[in-house]
Each structure stands twice: as C-alpha cells, then as structure tokens.
Design brief:
The protein is built from 15 helices and 13 strands. It has 415 residues and is α/β, with parallel strands linked by helices. Helix 2 (69-85) crosses helix 15 (392-407), helix 3 (106-116) crosses helix 5 and helix 8 packs across helix 9. The longest helix is centred in the C-terminal third of the chain and has 26 residues, at 363-388. It is globular.
Amino acid sequence: MTLMDNRGELDKQARQAVTAVPVDLTEAPPAHEVTWRDPVTGADGFLVVQTLVGGLATGGTRMRKGCTVEEVTDLARGMATKTATFGLPVGGAKGGIDFDPKDPRAMGVLTRFCEAMRPWLDRHWITAEDLGVSQEQIDEAFAELGLSQSYHAAIGRSADPERALARVRAGLHVQTEDELPLPLGDVIGGYGVAQACLGTAVALGWPPSTTTVAVQGVGTMGGGAAWYLHEAGVKIVAIADAGGTLRDPDGLDVPALLAARDEYGEIDRSQVPGSVEQLPRDAILASEVDILVPAAVSYAINEDNVADVAARVVVEAANTATTAPAEDELTARGVPVVPDFVANAGAAAWAWWLLQGQVGTDPEDSFRRLRNEMQSKVAVILEAWTSDRVPPRTTARGIAQANREALAGAEIIVP
C-alpha cells in the first residue's frame, strides 16, 4: 500500500485518536546517538535519531553556545512526534553543535560536522536550518562536501534523482507572490505558525481582527509568523529579539520592524519609532495578549517565569518552548498550549510534500494545503480542550499515535 492510498485511513484514525488513550511515541530511547568533537575548535556536536521510518529521519541542525546532547535528544523526540502528527512517512532526528554561531569560525565548524555525519546524510538523515544555522549555510556546507542538497538522503531514493533534485530546488527557491519577497522555503514555517494562531482564534471564537498577539523572536519562525498574522489583520502588540521587547498597544508596524533587522536578525533600534515602548527582553512573556508565540529559544517558558505569562493561549513556534512543569501550571490555570510539534510543523510537512511532488512551484498551492491541514488539526485539539479540558498536547499525541500505526508498512515513494 502506498502512502497516498493510505491517506484516507490516516485521516480516519487521526479523527478517532481524540477518543483514544494517547501514547507518547517518544518514551523509548533514541534509535541512534552520535557524538563528535571538532578537531580544530574543540566544539562538541551531536546527532540524535529518535525514530527511522523506512530508513529515513528528518530534523534540522542548530548551533548555539551551550547546546547539549540532552537538548538535542528533546528536539529529536519532538521531530518524531511532529512527523507522525502530520502523517509524514519519515522519522525524527536533530543535529546540534555547542558553538557560538556569531564566531567567524562557525561555518568551518558546521562544514566539519556535516562531513563527520556524512554516512547519515548520504542515506538516512534529511536536515535543514535551525537556531543559529541558516539554510544558506547548510547548502554551502553540502556544496563543499559534494552533496547535491540537504534533502540528499531522500532524493537518492528517487527513480530519477536529477529530476527530483530539480523539482526540490525549484520549489525551495520560488518567490512568494505577496509583499514578503523571499523564497517560499524561507517563509513557509512562519506561515504555518500564523495559521496555527489563526486556527486557534477561530476555534475559540475570537475574530482575528480583535485578537492580540505577542511574538518572542523575529527569525525565520517568529518573523514569518508576525508578518503573516499582520497581513491577516491580527494586531501584533509586542515583539522581542535579543535586544529587548518592543511594545505598542495600538499595534506594531511589523513590516517596518522586520525590514530593520541586521545581519544577526536583530532590529536596529535607531529605526524604531519613538512611540514604541522599549522594554527588557523577558518582558514579552508578561504581555497581556490573547496569544503568546514563543519563537526563539527552547525552554523559554519554564518554572522560573511561568507565573509571568499573562496570555490566554500559548502557541509554540520554537521547539520545546515550554518545559513540562510550566505547561502543567498553565493548563491548571486554564491556559492551553498548542504544542510545537503541531504549530511549527509547517516547514517539515511542506518539505516532504515537495519531495513527493504533492506541491510544486505555485506558492498558493502550498499555502492552501498548509492552511487547511494546520487549521484542521488545531480545531481538533482545541475542541477537545474546550469541551473536556483535554490538554492540546495529549490530543495531538493521540493523532500522532494513530498516524504512526496507519503508516506501518507504507511504501515511501519519492518520484
């Protein structure tokens, strides 16, 4: 049975999952764990493969000072659940490097890490950008190693790898047709987060035009989410980057602020209007808004600051943005958390659709499919919350469980 033949069964079992006893698919130890030490700088790097489906796993590579194998393991578990939630026939993995991405030696460290992981990148691991690592840097490292593209492991399974590579490259680099003139591959993840927020508003009966949002982070996820929410008429009242929080209760000029980002993704304060209040970075968490979007670092909401959270809903754009004890406290307070493996799954889902030829070079086709799939999943998990106070993460794990069972034995096809 092929994946496309199995699609109806996936949808049926996903709907049934909300009444099933959920199982955390990632309780098992990782399938594989690889550690590495850079011979030049001494930086440590990690690859954690939580699950393999048909011999493949997907997950980005991050770089930050202080990155640990425990963090990468958490992220790999999240990726495994993410791919299952969206019914993707691929497992979950993550790469991480303990090194400052602003250090001029960072590109060399990344390239040597990829070279060390080449046996995985050749046949099993599909990687992409993540915190501290851009897709351009990933592509540069792959080019230096003589690999075609970071989807290399999947493309190599195609009957016609050259045609598959051309299709993927065309889809990744097609320009969007809105006022955000960036390649579709750079914005689709943030667009998915925006749709998770819009789906949340609709599910809870809030008109988007009167819904307020605060976004922590202005990178690929946070910046893209803020852009598309602003475009949809949602009021973004606070944004935070490494330099602090910018707040305007009347709504920020999101396009102007994003245009003022420097090479490190921080907003140039000299271009911020005087009417915008400038606050400490962590003030974003205390924003009195309908939706808080943590889109920066992992564990941004934790036991030390969860009491400060004043939003009515948290939509996780960053991976593992909320610690488990903090989420338990929010749930007890009546604040649902839309988990990262739903809200930020847009880029991973879209990449697989592109690999399989299910979307092409028309951005609207990709936007439409992601919009429909994201909003429908958010509707299911929030319906269970509003009717029975079932935490969104619990329902979403049930969907992942049903999808993984339905995918068992499915043939992985890359045209």
